[in-house]
Amino acid sequence: MNKFNRRQFIKALGAASAIGGLGFPLIGKAGTAAKVVVIGGGYAGATCAKYLRIYDSDLDVTLIEKSEHYVSCPLSNEVLGGERDIKSLTFGYDGLTGHGVNVVHDEVTKIDPTKKTITTKGGKTHQYDMLVVSPGISFKWGAIEGYDEAASELMPHAWKAGKQTEILRKQLEAMENGGTVIISAPPNPFRCPPGPYERAAQIAFYLSHHKPKSKVVILDSKDKFSKQGLFMEGWEALYPGMIDWVMAANDGKVIGVDAKKGIVMTEFAEHKAAVANIIPPQKAGILAEIAGLTNDSGWCPVDQGTFESTIHKDVYVIGDASIAGKMPKSGYAANSQGKVCAMAIATKVAGETMPEPSYVNTCYSLIGPHYGISVAMVYELKDGEVVGVKDAGGLSPMKAPESTRRAESIYAHSWYRNITHDIFS
Ligand SMILES: Cc1cc2nc3c(=O)[nH]c(=O)nc-3n(C[C@H](O)[C@H](O)[C@H](O)COP(=O)(O)OP(=O)(O)OC[C@H]3O[C@@H](n4cnc5c(N)ncnc54)[C@H](O)[C@@H]3O)c2cc1C
Question: Which of 99, 114, 285, 331 holds its CA 20 to 30 A away from the CA of 407?
């Protein structure tokens, strides 16, 4: 295992490591390793837990994750397209154990930031010096009339990969040739801004081969969307006439459903769906709300340089649940935040100065198996907010040759292999 310690890392960054001497005052007796508990083993939390141990192998790191296996949302749209199965998106936590992370499978039900304890469904209490909360997202059930957890069994959201993805895939396989698949795209901010539009393409890929008389209609709560020009160009190139996008201004916003009858309602119309994929409005994972870490927006305000909550001291929030300036809610952003947060905690424990953080994100979207597009950005901290570095990122070019699209599809799959290796191995 290629471990390097925190001091070497800071030196490698060329950062001033003003060693403060006293370090972080621990709850336990002098000489006890600082205890960091990370809740949620997804793109953000699993990264953070692993990198805490890499940056400082003296840290006592516990990861509490409710599921024994993690199913990746990135590339889950390919399951809908029929190109991969859920197994290829599923990861265990042995890699983290190998890094010395104590992995516990349980659900956290309560955080007491005063006593610095957390309580689990399994009846255990864990003490922490520092807590990292990375529970992902939850849904605003009821924001769309008639759409609750029970309705999502009939009209799946598939916005947390796993069982929901499989329900949606089975519905696509069972529908008649000539039916309409409706995708309801949520308002901002939400997990994976290009996701609904990649999904439309992947479903169209499947339909164009198996049920070519069918259509995909995206009913949108917004008037524009991520990588819009590129998506529209790709849809037309690969699936001409098959995908319709209805913006909010043209009565695209879904306000209600009748899940049993397969009806999706907008303000002025009712749409009959052969398959309805309702992606509801979102907020931070429910635990963040229970713990009082959210503000009126439903997301968690943090110091964007360290990800420490601005509401509770020594509690950090990373990933989709956090308000991270201009960064989108993506797996790559969550991975980047996990590393920044790990460094913030490691330096705080040591009483050292946090190096200037840098953040990165690239979102690839697969319009077809050999047709990829992307948006990339490097971020910096300016006046307390994460903002894009001028001229550091960009979009795939419009009207690019087939070879460019093909190359980007290869980069997309390679990105997935690399990032999941970075997190779970
Ligand atoms: C269809 C789709 C496609 C996507 N494609 C991409 C892509 O190509 N690239 C990209 O960068 N991003 C993509 N994303 C976005 C990406 O999945 C998320 O941004 C990312 O998963 C966020 O990571 P997270 O750690 O914040 O949350 P999650 O990955 O959801 O992890 C949260 C974890 O916390 C656990 N948890 C929650 N509450 C508790 C609790 N109380 N106790 C214990 N454990 C708990 C959950 O079980 C879960 O494992 C996609 C998303 C979707 C839906």
Answer: 331
Q: Tell me: the pLDDT tens digits for 217-241?
A: 999 999 999 999 999 999 999 999 9
**What is the residue type of 184?**
S
Euclidean distance between the first and final Cα of the chain, in Å?
10
Q: How far is the CA of 420 from the centre of ligand 1 (A)?
A: 12
Pairwise CA distance, residues 320 & 191, whole Å:
7
Higher pLDDT, 8 or 221: 221
Q: Is 338 in the pocket of ligand 1 (CB under 6 A)?
A: no
User: In this predicted structure, which of 1-5, 16-20, 115-119, 324-328 has the lowest mean pLDDT?
Assistant: 16-20
Ligand 1 pocket: which of 37, 93, 192 to mutate (most atoms within 8 A of CB): 192
213 burial (CB, 10 Å; 0-12 / 13-18 / 19+) is exposed
The pTM of this model reads 0.94
pLDDT of residue 33: 87
CA–CA distances in Å: residue 163 to residues 71, 76, 271: 10, 11, 26
Q: Give the Å distances, CA to CA, from 107 to 39, 40, 113, 308, 404.
A: 9, 9, 17, 22, 44
